[in-house]
Design goal:
Elements (H helix, E strand, L loop, with lengths): L1 H18 L19 H15 L6 H26 L1 H18 L8 H18 L9
Helix pairs in contact: 1-4, 2-3, 2-5, 3-4, 3-5, 4-5
Length: 139
């Protein structure tokens, strides 16, 4: 049973690395000098996810803005930083992100989009704690 849970996480990590252009060719070593996530960025991403999770945004354009403009890129950066410390946490974040992305491809949005956004926010909390940032939480 455990191997079934771990395999999707590994797949999510591999997909996330390729979808984001992979690593910089340094064998996965991070210099920490290029894209360290700031607290303000983390808060902005969490705010976008919380807006979706709580139903604060419901119009298609607002939902897409909350995810793609406010959260998406930061989620990738957080996952990349977390991967250096705890690949399982990074994989869980990418897997939850993938669920929300799939929901956003289906208009009208599935009724469980807020629940999926809340799960993504929870995975983001774990990843932010892993990289040493103070996560905000959804109301």
């Amino acid at each position: 049973m455990r191997s079934r849970t771990f395999l999707p996480l590994l797949v999510a990590l591999a997909i996330g690395a390729t979808a984001c252009g992979g690593d910089s060719g340094d064998g996965g070593a991070s210099t920490g000098s290029t894209t360290a996530v700031t607290q303000a960025q983390a808060d902005e991403a969490m705010g976008g996810l919380c807006d979706i999770a709580t139903g604060a945004v419901t119009e298609t354009s607002d939902v897409l803005d909350a995810f793609h403009t406010r959260a998406h890129e930061i989620l990738h950066h957080v996952a990349s930083e977390a991967r250096q410390i705890d690949p399982v946490v990074a994989g869980a974040l990418l897997e939850a992100k993938s669920v929300v992305e799939t929901d956003l491809l289906n208009a009208p949005y599935p009724s469980d989009l807020p629940e999926h956004a809340q799960a993504l926010a929870a995975a983001l909390v774990d990843a932010l704690e892993t990289i040493g940032l103070r996560p905000a939480t959804c109301p």
